[in-house]
Amino acid sequence: MTMETGWHYHTCEMQIGYITKGWIDLQYEDGTEVRLEAGDIMFVPGGVKHNEIRTSTDLAGLELTIPADMGTVPCEKP
User: Fold this and answer.
1) Which of 44, 50, 55, 68 is deepest in the core (most CB within 10 A)?
2) How confident is the model at residue 64, as a pLDDT?
3) Residue pair 9/75 in contact by the 8 Å Cβ criterion
4) Residue 2: CA atoms inside 13 Å, Cβ hemisphere, count?
């Protein structure tokens, strides 16, 4: 990842991620910033605005969305 994803939300019930390698820094609409590292699990309810701001060059993981057919909607910074 060479640049931020930009603020967005997903049209789904939930998004779950499991980081298997590396790290990712995220911002959430409530002002929270977190770094998830290998072994961490991410949970984002559908409709929650967020922004991936940086990652390690070796980031790897597994992402599940419910339902699988998820949409992404760009939005303004909250």
Assistant:
1) 50
2) 96
3) yes
4) 0
CA distance 61 to 55: 12
Length of the chain in residues, anyone? 78
Q: Which whole number is the average pLDDT over 55-76?
A: 95
What sections of the chain are H helices per DSSP? Answer: none
Whether this model's pTM surpasses 0.85:
yes
Per the prediction, the chain carries an average pLDDT of 95
pLDDT tens-digit profile of 25-56? 999 999 999 999 999 999 999 999 999 999 99
Which residue, 9, 2, 26, is CA-closest to 65? 9
